[in-house]
Specification:
- The chain contains 13 helices and eight strands.
- The chain has a single domain (2-203), classed as Response regulator (Rossmann fold, 3-Layer(aba) Sandwich).
- The protein has helices at 21-33, 45-53, 55-63, 72-80, 90-104, 115-128, 147-157, 170-181, 193-197, 206-210, 214-221, 223-229, 232-248; strands at residues 8-11, 14-17, 38-43, 66-69, 108-112, 134-138, 161-165, 186-189.
- By secondary structure, it is α/β, with parallel strands linked by helices.
- Bound molecules: uridine-5'-diphosphate (UDP).
Length: 251
């Protein structure tokens, strides 16, 4: 995907970029090399539901330069619209991007999760990627008043790729602030990824992931999450079906 010729599908009014995993990484690296910073949103049905109620979040989604289809809910929604799109898990895209940063000498920042989690995630990433340069690390439990100093300290550290793990929509709003003073860096909201990278939370075994059932595994492990996410998914898909029927009829 080149700048200017963006291939997108709309789900309930929100754009999702259609591209392969490798194209998403290529797009990211091309922009970084050109010194053009930007925001990556790894979109899921929950985020679309939030955006429908929250205009500020809707505008973040509409203005993100890259919106990655993350998870089976978005994949199904696109399928309903007749589009076959590869699922690009945000956590995998981010890990690959960190590897590319290590290879290309681009400094990285990690912001979010509990202190011991983000420190352990940092250690594990440094073990995994030779030459990785992590120039800023901060846990995600801070007050509104701390935001300015976080922004100043991170800006002084001059990362080129910033991973923010505060959960949506908090992380996307924080990114909006941070990117003002770091216009040449890429910012990715990564949800619970640091928990996984720290080794504290396990990702689903390969077989669940291959079958698109990672959500089922996480549900079994975290029933609370199930209560939050599951009731929303069928409703989301019903709305997408209604939308696509109306679109076909030309309304
Ligand atoms: N988190 C944080 N600060 C907060 C709230 C959450 O750093 O004020 C972290 C939390 O510790 C976890 C991540 O944000 O590491 C989000 O996790 P969650 O699983 O809720 O996000 P999801 O993957 O569902 O977007």
């Amino acid at each position: 995907m080149e700048n200017g010729e963006r291939k997108q599908a709309k789900i309930l009014g929100f754009g999702v970029d259609l591209m392969s995993f490798s194209e998403a990484l290529e797009f990211t690296m091309n922009r970084l090399r050109a010194g053009q910073g930007f925001q990556v949103v790894t979109i899921n049905p929950e985020m679309i539901e939030i955006a429908k109620k929250n205009p500020d979040f809707a505008s973040v989604l509409n203005n993100a330069e890259l919106v990655i289809p993350d998870g089976v809910g978005i994949k199904l929604a696109l399928k309903i619209k007749g589009i076959n799109q590869e699922n690009i898990p945000g956590i995998e895209y981010s890990k690959k991007l960190i590897g590319l940063c290590a290879q290309n000498g681009l400094p990285v920042a990690l912001l979010g999760a509990k202190e011991e989690i983000v420190q352990k995630a940092k250690q594990n990433l440094l073990k995994e990627f030779e030459n990785l340069n992590i120039v800023y690390t901060r846990n995600g439990y801070f007050s509104k008043e701390d935001e300015e100093s976080i922004k100043n300290d991170m800006t002084a550290a001059a990362p080129k790729a910033v991973f923010v793990a505060l959960g949506a929509p908090k992380q996307e709003f924080m990114i909006q602030e941070l990117k003002k003073s770091m216009p040449d860096a890429v910012f990715v909201g990564v949800g619970g990824s640091f928990d996984v990278w720290s080794g504290v939370v396990k990702r689903a075994p390969e077989i669940y992931r291959k079958l698109g059932l990672e959500w089922l595994y996480r549900t079994l492990k975290e029933p609370e999450r199930f209560k939050r996410i599951f009731p929303a998914l069928p409703l989301f898909l019903i709305r997408v079906i209604i939308e696509s029927v109306f679109q076909k009829k030309g309304y």
